[in-house]
Amino acid sequence: MTEWKYLKYPYLTEKSVTLVEQANTIVFIVDLKADKNQIREEFEKVFEVKVEKLNTEITADGKKKAFIKLKPEFNAGDVAVKLGLV
């Protein structure tokens, strides 16, 4: 796997797997200092998809979580399979 600058690792919980299946969304833990444009550009380049919407939140333990919704013509399940999540 290549070295990512802003993406750290996929966030794998029961809720995040449900988001992949129902909302076409992948959840990643990202660099705390990364902004939405940097996250979007890196994700699109690495996984060769287009991002429709990107939301971030800082968790209680100080990590930054990105909810990355893909455009309808792309399938989050395919990205999850590439990452070995499903």
Q: Give the total of domains.
A: 1
Distance between the termini: 17 Å
What is the assembly state of the chains in this entry? single chain
Q: Which structural category do the helix and sheet elements fall into?
A: alpha+beta
Helicity, as a percent range: 25-40%
What is the top-level CATH class?
Alpha Beta
The radius of gyration computed from the alpha-carbon positions, rounded to a whole number of angstroms, is 12 Å
- Extended strand count: 4
Which features would summarize this protein structure in a list?
86 residues; Alpha-Beta Plaits; 4-stranded antiparallel beta sheet
What does this structure look like?
By secondary structure, this protein is of the alpha+beta class. It has a single domain (7-77), classed as RRM (RNA recognition motif) domain (Alpha-Beta Plaits, 2-Layer Sandwich). The chain contains three helices and four strands, in the order E-H-E-H-E-E-H. The protein has helices spanning 14-23, 36-47, 76-83, and strands at 7-10, 25-30, 51-58, 64-70. It has a four-stranded antiparallel sheet with strand order 1-2-4-3. A hairpin with a 5-residue loop joins strand 3 and strand 4. The longest helix has 12 residues, at 36-47. The two termini are 17 Å apart. The mean pLDDT is 93.
SSE diagram, text form:
Blueprint: E1 7-10, H1 14-23, E2 25-30, H2 36-47, E3 51-58, E4 64-70, H3 76-83
Quick gist of this model?
The protein is α+β, with helices and mostly antiparallel strands and 86 residues long. It has helices at 14-23, 36-47, 76-83; strands at residues 7-10, 25-30, 51-58, 64-70. The protein has three helices and four strands.
